[in-house]
Write a structure and sequence with these properties.
Blueprint: H1 4-19, E1 35-44, H2 63-80, E2 82-91, H3 98-106, E3 111-115, H4 118-131, E4 134-137, E5 154-156, H5 161-174, E6 179-185, H6 188-204, E7 207-214, H7 224-237, E8 246-250, E9 270-272, E10 277-279, H8 290-301, H9 307-326, H10 331-339, E11 345-346, E12 352-353, E13 366-369, E14 374-378
């Protein structure tokens, strides 16, 4: 069932395209052939473990969101003589991404959603530029991709670590929980998120009163003896810390973070990669039309949307919105429209979303939730900005190191 907003969007898009004479733009100039828009999806995938089996990512994480968006694009496209298609290719984490990317390009995909590492994305970004392909990063949170390694042909719908950390920090400051203990893992992603949390503390006035490293020793935590060991270890590990309001945890590698809530020496809330978690989306979100997209997603996919699904959905819908409004499938025209002041995408998050023109990062709220519900959404009340309150999250224009060609 198509929601009311989608019906209105279809009618508005149809009227606009008819008015501009582009309602039936064709791929070959004939009135019988639709405009074909092929969207690739390049994914680095391997089965993942998590400390809780409830946190194991779905097999189709991200891809399912893109599938729903392509179906939504085709709802509008059926009125406008436009057809959207999705092609998915998977590679191993850490593998060379160039061959798989070339295969997508050879099959006519001029827009490619990427859920790969920062290193893999950088390795194909210039190839994409040479081929006239526009990339949408739906998975990598690395700030460097939007800063020192930014590219004019790469848009980002996944929030950065700095956006996630800022969203969490704003809420903690709103609660006046100002004194934080930071515990981070020993792997590179853990350290990057820890740095983002420290940046957020400095930015918003939080105080990190202590910092501890949890080394990954590779223990068998799922064994009965492992559970017993964790129950004994965590209180001792957090003993003797200075007075604090919150324990912040940076454990993207899933080594220890889930074991911190309810096991600290003194009773304090846990936030970060465990406890109160910042994210691009929450499976329990029902505000701003969230119920409709969640229900449509569940009816087709059989589960609730997670953050990567929403990032992929938003990327594919950005393409669809731009194609509808321009009547063109040309990547340069589509990208130019997405960068323009006329572009916005409705994404069930309380306001229309746009891309920052200095690094092509999607402006978006950050959800704060536990495993059951949405606790809050940032930006928080009182955090003001001269352009958009969403720009209080992450790297702002005066701070950017991105130079787009």
């Amino acid at each position: 069932m198509v929601e009311k907003r989608s019906i209105i969007a279809v009618l508005v898009g149809l009227l606009m395209c008819i008015a501009s004479g582009t309602a039936f733009a064709q791929s070959d100039g004939s009135e019988d052939s639709p405009l074909e828009v092929k969207i690739g999806y390049l994914r680095a995938y391997a089965p993942e473990l998590a400390l809780s089996v409830l946190d194991i990512p779905p097999r189709d994480e991200g891809v399912a969101g893109a599938e729903i968006a392509v179906a939504d694009n085709n709802t509008t496209g059926s009125f406008l003589g436009q057809e959207f298609a999705l092609e998915v290719r998977e590679i191993a984490p850490g593998a060379n991404a160039r061959e798989a990317f070339r295969g997508l390009v050879e099959n006519g995909n001029r827009f490619v959603l990427t859920d790969v590492s920062a290193e893999q994305l950088v390795s194909i970004a210039d190839l994409a530029a040479e081929a006239g392909v526009i990339l949408f990063n739906v998975g990598a949170p690395d700030d460097i991709l939007r800063e020192e390694e930014c590219r004019a042909n790469v848009f980002h719908t996944a929030p950065t670590r700095s956006m996630l950390a800022d969203g969490l920090a704003q809420y903690l400051m709103w609660k006046q929980w100002r004194r934080w203990v930071l515990i981070h893992g020993s792997h590179a992603p853990d350290r990057l998120f820890a740095e983002a949390l420290k940046r957020a503390a400095e930015r918003f006035g939080g105080e990190i009163v202590a910092e501890k490293l949890y080394e990954d020793r590779g223990t068998a935590r799922r064994a009965d003896s492992g559970v017993t060991q964790i129950q004994r270890e965590m209180p001792v590990f957090t003993q003797g810390l200075p007075e604090h309001d919150v324990v912040l945890v940076a454990d993207e590698s899933e080594v220890f973070g889930t074991y911190l809530p309810y096991r600290t020496w003194v009773p304090r809330p846990v936030a970060g990669t465990a406890g109160l978690v910042p994210s691009a989306w929450h499976p329990a979100s029902e505000q701003w039309g969230g119920t409709q997209i969640q229900n449509r997603f569940a009816d087709r996919i059989g589960r609730r949307m997670v953050s990567k699904d929403m990032s992929a959905w938003t990327a594919a819908r950005s393409i669809g919105e731009a194609v509808t409004r321009t009547g063109s499938g040309d990547p340069e025209e589509v990208a130019a429209f997405i960068r323009s002041d006329d572009f916005a995408v409705a994404a069930f998050r309380g306001q229309k979303l746009t891309y920052r023109d200095w690094n092509q990062q999607l402006r978006q709220p950050i959800f704060l939730g536990d495993g059951r519900s949405v606790v809050s959404t940032s930006p928080q009340e009182g955090f003001l900005h001269q352009v958009s309150e969403l720009d209080t999250l992450g790297v702002d224009r005066p701070e950017t190191r991105c130079v787009l060609d």
